[in-house]
Amino acid sequence: MQVNRVTAGQGLRWLIEGFGLLRRQPLGLPAMVVIYLMMLLVPALIPLVGIVFAGVLSPFATVGLMHCMRDAAAGRAPVPAAFALPFRDETARTHLFRLGLVNAALVSIVAVLALLLGPESPSSGPPRTLDELPLDGLLLQMVLYLPVLALMWFSPLLAGWHRVSPAKAMFGSVIACLRNLGAMLVYAFSTALALVSISVVIISLLTVFISSRELLSFFVAPVALALMTVVQASFYPMYRDLFADSAASTASASLAR
After folding, report:
1. Which of 74, 87, 62, 59 is nearest to 21 (CA)?
2. Rounded to whole angstroms, how far apart are CA atoms 169 and 156?
3. 128 Cβ partners below 8 Å, 6+ apart?
4. Cα separation, 69 vs 75, whole angstroms
5. What is the spatial distance between Cα 86 and Cα 101, in angstroms, rounded to a whole number?
6. Could you tell me the pTM of the whole model?
7. Which of 185-189, 198-202, 216-220 is most confident?
8. Secondary structure, 3-state, 62-123
9. CA nearest 30: which of 68, 58, 59?
10. The Cα angle at residue 233 between residues 172 and 194, in degrees rounded to 5
């Protein structure tokens, strides 16, 4: 398993290629993202053990979604059957299941630490305004989750596609993030800037014509799904450039054209 090094500017290229993949499959890829979210959100609704089930399923769902992104990059229409592929190969299934157990344990630890270390919420119930958002708690959770994110960023694909053991997959994921920290930071900054800018512009335009919050949410939801799809789609060219061989990586430029 070889980890490639890319320039910092490649981080912006990954995001652009994510938009390119959405343009190729404007209906199919968002539908696959909905299936991906359902695989994670439905188990999470189970009381007490939901977070564990979602954590175990996460690597399988990730590999399934990346199958869809790879198909879109190759000019094929993504299909829901792609989410069954990670379960078919015995070696990959075993590696992904073990990786899921590690992921579930780490996510549970982060949740407990955030609960113990985070500030107490002064109000009960969900926040109704921006002022009520627990920004300190959210920032703490994000900082605590960063090591888990580095471990799990590429490890599902390494375990599912390369048949790498969970330990080696997580090690390779961390090495890829550290060796390409510049590109990762450019990608994170570009993604945040694009999401915020597009969201503000679209919501500002919609509020000119729509005063009802319920009706506004109806139009905003597809936009949010499309932006989420772009982010998910950008993970595939990121993986391809960092782990695929040099010959395969040369095909990346065509996606954004």
Report:
1. 74
2. 7
3. none
4. 10
5. 16
6. 0.86
7. 185-189
8. HHHHHHHHHHHHCCCCCCHHHHHHHHHCHHHHHHHHHHHHHHHHHHHHHHHHHHHHCCCCCC
9. 68
10. 105
